[in-house]
Write a structure and sequence with these properties.
137 residues, alpha/beta, 5 strands, globular
């Protein structure tokens, strides 16, 4: 069996055992509702909201079927600090950051911190779903 097929079979097996969870650290209630609506039902098994405590987030399990969604709209410094701290604490959970076009420097720094994706606002439902699908695979 080719390596790609083994990887796909392993992923399919693990997906059945472990539910897909998108952890979300977003303060704005409208963004929360939009994210829940965009991801619910068929893409993830659960959307779990968390606070921005890096130590608590570092305990989140990574691996297949897990990702963390953050925003950098109001305070990109806090977002960068949070991702830096997660990586320093050894958590490699895929991170998706939603932020404004003006946050170019933040996007570059997020990439350096090995975040999975930086999505420029406005973000479409399809863009978010695609990013989560990539992060959770």
């Amino acid at each position: 069996m080719p390596t790609a097929s083994l990887h796909q079979a392993k992923h399919a097996f693990l997906s059945k055992l472990m539910p897909t969870i998108a952890y979300v650290v977003v303060a704005d209630p409208h963004d929360r509702a939009w994210i829940t609506s965009a991801l619910a039902h068929d893409l993830v098994d659960s959307v779990a909201y968390a606070n921005d405590d890096a130590v608590q987030l570092a305990g989140l399990s990574g691996g297949p079927g897990r990702c963390l969604i953050l925003t950098a709209d109001r305070d990109d410094t806090t977002t960068l600090r949070l991702v830096r701290e997660l990586r320093r604490l050894g958590n490699d959970i895929p991170v998706i950051v939603l932020g404004p076009y003006s946050a170019f420097r933040t996007a570059v720094e997020i990439a350096r911190l090995e975040a999975t994706d930086f999505l420029e606002r406005p973000v479409s439902v399809q863009q978010l779903r695609s990013a989560v699908r990539r992060a959770c695979s």
